[in-house]
Amino acid sequence: MSSPSRVGRLRGSLAALAILGLLAACAAPPTPPVKPSTPPPAATPALEEQAPRQRQVLLRERSRWVAADWSELPGWGQDRATELWPALLQSCARPAPGWAAVCARARMEPPPTDDTSASLWLMQHLRPYRVESLEGEAQGLLTGYFEPQLEATRRPQGAFKVPVLGAPADLQQRRPYFTRQQIESEPAVKARLRERELAYLDDPLDLLVLQIQGSGRVRFSSLDGSQQWVRLAFAGHNDHPYQSIGKTLIERGELRPGEASWPQIRDWLRRNPQRSNELLWTNPRYVFFREEALPDLNLGPRGAQGVPLTPGRSVAVDRNSVPYGTPVWLDASEPLSSQPLRRLAMAQDTGSAIVGAVRADYFWGWGREAETQAGRMKQPLRLWALWPDDGTATSR
Q1: What does pTM read for this prediction?
Q2: Three-state SS across 267-326?
């Protein structure tokens, strides 16, 4: 455990960071300096020629981490840091190499009761590193994702005719498997997959969104008025490449660059229903699912780390840049806004499009509002990894 003197220094550092902006805003105009009665001593050549401080560098497969000071994290000390704790404890159920001691402390000690205490705890036990590409580029990209929340039926009825399929028995033997167009249009293929139908949706775009996000929650309503929520979790795909339909619409001149969010794509399909299949089939990838119980509607889907995701506090990363279970500090902005988004999050998931050193996908939660926010998010990002301050990481 850190000494009381270090805790005091950390508390002072955090307080200084929190009031720095206030002091700058409230400062009076500077008073002209008083001329000293005797000239100051000349700087010694040794001090003038002193080399810049050497920073520790940790190398990952796709990134380099450069040791930083807490004062370099924009907005540090102003986040609701206590909100990180549930996500942190979820990751500590499967701690990353080098995290056993920190996670043991986090589980044994009472959770912080306020944001200052939570920030101080992190400052005591962790050290910040600026994440860069191997070439030294520190700016990357932040996108968003969510868990669709949909209505469904067990049998085809009315508008609910779009099947959600479980993984075929021969999925691993036939690679690549049938394309999206073949699965949805060829009678022989449809017949062989009919027994794999888990649910029926009323919108083919909802199926595509479900497949892109990798999981979703659906509600089945019975004739007697009872309802059942289940989660449809990722169970495999047909091994064909993913093609963005938003990008296709831009390339065809149907949407302008920057307009291909889910709300705009939905609007285009509503205006062009006869071209729905033509557009959707340009993406040959098809994702299959398995059904899981959903006893707690407040529990997020499991990410690649194997722990439930927390809205606003979980991100997907490139695991070759940032290991699962690493707290990170995000410096970006809100979707379609200059409002800063500076906060703590846990690296708990990944995705096929999440590749690169400074790359993250922000989990917004579930439902239409989360879909809207996630679909609009494409922000410049700077990223800091917070790693145990115990010398266990390999350095250069």
Answers
A1: 0.81
A2: HHHHHCHHHHHHHHCCCCCCEEEEEEECCCCCCCCECCCCCECCCCCEEEECCCCCCCCC
